[in-house]
Amino acid sequence: xxxxxxxLKVSNQLYREMIQCLDILNQSPKAAMDPQSGCxxxxxxxxxxxxxxxxxxxxxxxxxxxxxxxxxxxxxxxxEALLKHLLNQNKLVTSKAASLKSLLRDELQKSSxxxxxxxxxxxxxxxxxxxxxxxxx
Length: 137
Fold this sequence. Notes:
The chain is mainly alpha-helical. The protein has one domain. 68% of the residues lie in helices and 6% in strands. It is built from 4 helices and 2 strands. It has helices at 3-27, 41-61, 70-112, 117-120; strands spanning 126-129, 132-135. A hairpin with a 2-residue loop joins strand 1 (126-129) and strand 2. The mean pLDDT is 79.
């Protein structure tokens, strides 16, 4: 196995791990914070960084990769399939996260009824006038 094939093999393994992470997150957004899930946000970011580093090395090799080799062709087609799957999983997780964020924002707005935290600290016999609390009669 040559250097480019090793890089492709490592790339495919990293993409598989990222897909597993996204599968876990797709099942439950709580998994991002769960130390037992194996896919905490720090692990996810670490995978992203490793993939970025490895892919930049692959990009350097791409012009010289011999496409006539069966192993290389298999690794490249596998990589392409993994990338497509990764993109689909990412879209699913992103849409779920956006929905959850919207739901939480709506619930927060309903529970606060437009009040801010400072309004909750006022006593009932105080009124705000020009930035100063004044007692009312």
